[in-house]
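<instruction>
Derive structure tokens from the sequence
<data>
Labelled lines for chain and fold:
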Amino acid sequence: MAADGNITKDVIYDAVSPDDFESMLELDRYNARSTAFDKIISATHDHFWDPLDKKYIDFDEPFDMENTMILPEEMVISLQTDYVSNALKTQKDRVRFVNQFTLRTFSSILHGEQGALNLSASLCHVLKDQGAQEYAANQTREEARHVTAFAKYIKARWGRPVECGPTLKALLVDIIHSPEVYKKIIGMQMLVEGLAMGAFATIFKLTNDPLARKLTQLVMTDEAFHHKFGKIWADRTIPHLTEKEHEIIELWAAQCFQTLLFNLVGPTQQRSLYEEFGLDPEIVIAELGKLITDDTRREGMKEQTNIFRVLVKTLLNAGIITDRTKAFYGMYVDMDELKAEGDKMVGDDIAEEGIRFLQEINFADKAKQVLIAAE
């Protein structure tokens, strides 16, 4: 039984209903395994790491939470308002405020990784091709170690995470429960993974915590390959869409992007933070409304690692954006500039450096070529 509403242009993405296990037992299926993902699957040995093994990462590494900000305060836009800035009387208050903001950032990442784990597992139930299924099982294993790693980091620095914000939660629930494979792949492998690569590159570059820097780099060694899975799907699917199918996919991607842009890091998502410091959330949100405009969003997206700029580049490189939605994204990003940058994604260099570190541990006795370009 085919999955409802699936837009499939290549047999390797054929899908069945998640409760249709009988289709997995078809004899012809066992001899029809695609080789499209073999390089990515094989390369997993190059970037293996274990969050429970201190030779890869040590979560006991100390950090002075009372006096040092994990992320720089310029990343916390609410501190640019007079109301918040004046309420935080001492440097220690500012440090605590920034670090509690950072807790929310890492909690969102943790929840996103949990979403990626469940989504990858859900692909195992619906993808008929053995190669695609093995890739999805592989990614599930890697996402599981990310959940372990971010949970351990949050426990080490704060004790426990905070609730998933409503915008991210709604998107994750939508794509995990969706019967359409294109929504799962665009939603997770392109949008959420693209978002993550931008966030990790920013944290890697700006954090004052060496442990956070190590953690984001290790995770990026995996995420760069997950991104490849989405690219292979796009290469084999987008050129063959009918006009109507392309419109369905393009508008859904634009809607997700808009939802994330206006809500994911929006002031309404930080109410609990303001209340924790005795601030009136309505006043903070009103003051931020004057600071955050389309102009400031556009200015922010000139930064290579801006998470939303990375998303637009991902969709553009995949061929999902056409003249139909180009103007919408063009309000925030210079599309010609993005096109001129080519396929190289933000974070690829960081990931490759991380893979070399892992190869030194995993293959101490033999040098191996970096396979980040596997596809």
